[in-house]
Amino acid sequence: MSTGPRSEFLGRRPAPALRPYLAGYVGYRDSGVPPGRHRGLPSPYLTLIVTLDDPLVVAAHPDPTTPPGVYATLLGGLHTAPALITHPGRQSGIQLALHPLGARALLGLPAGELAHSDVDAGSVLGCFAGDLRDRLRDTDGWAKRFGLLDRLLTARLAPDTRLPAELVHAWRRLRATDGRVPVTELARETGWSSRYLSRRFDTEIGLSPKRAARVVRFDRARRLLQRGSATGRPGALAEVAVAAGYYDQAHLDRDFRAFASCPPSRWLAEEAAGGEFRNVQAGAAGGAADSAA
Fold first, then answer.
1. pLDDT digit string (tens) for the chain, length 293 residues
2. What are the residue boundaries of the structural domains of the chain, listed by start?
């Protein structure tokens, strides 16, 4: 029996009925790897993590007033600062990426109530969080675990959580343009005032349209950098900046320092030195259609 390092990493899209609310699942399991840390970076998705063995250790939350904690299940809203997660050389669980406009249907509350925070999932989901973890731990194999998630989450969907078409349009436009559409244009397209649009974004998403656009653009840049590093063809930062919609490399660097608390070159070095868990954030939502609403 091998005692060397082992890493498992598998992503899957949810069942069709869940795709308007969930971007994807990622199952991960590492053992015998070097101890490390992961930056949970801002993204356009809420995050639900259900651990399978060791609990999740959060050394620093996006909200600096929240003390470090240990979590069997963790739920996080949209944020503009990184979380810092550590592990002792082993970790396992499933990470779910939730569309913010699907929060009411799956979580029973608007995404704005979770903005800038990570919490014990049980504080929002009640006994469902613990029951979900127990049933996933008792299920063998990623395919069966993903199937169990499909069944339990589909059964949990709340009826009639439709949101205003104007809000759905504005969010989809931000995503489709990688955050490049001006807020004034979004307001004009929806027929809402900029102030009212911002108020609805704060409630249902947790960020203003302008801040949400920055997070969407940053997430695009992060994925381009990560994809290039993973394929062994890292692009020049200036090229990534242009592809992601930044004015120049300096603009990209400023957003990385704001949202990741480090420059992109340092983040890439940390990614290259890390284990499989560093790719979970990209895998949970990478390539998934954004059909939230």
1. 456 788 899 999 999 999 999 999 999 999 998 998 889 999 999 999 999 999 999 999 999 999 999 999 999 999 999 999 999 999 999 999 999 999 999 999 999 999 999 999 999 999 999 999 999 999 999 999 999 999 999 999 998 788 999 999 999 999 999 999 999 999 999 999 999 999 999 999 999 999 999 999 999 999 999 887 655 555 588 889 999 999 889 999 999 999 999 999 888 888 766 544 444 555 555 544 444 44
2. 6-160
**Assigned CATH class of 6-160:** mainly beta
Helix axes 249-260, 264-273, angle to 10 degrees: 60
Q: DSSP readout, the chain?
A: ---S-EEEEEEE---GGGTTTEEEEEEEEEESPPPEEEEE---SSEEEEEESSSPEEEEE-SSTTSPPEEESEEEE---SS-EEEEESS-EEEEEEEE-GGGHHHHHSS-GGGGTT-EEETHHHHTHHHHHHHHHHHTS-SHHHHHHHHHHHHHHHPPS-----HHHHHHHHHHHHTTT-S-HHHHHHHHT--HHHHHHHHHHHTSS-HHHHHHHHHHHHHHHHHHHHHHTT-PPPHHHHHHHTT-SSHHHHHHHHHHHHSS-HHHHHHHHHHS-GGGGHHHHHHTT------
* Residue given tokens 């979380």 in the structure block: 83
Q: State pTM to two decimals.
A: 0.90
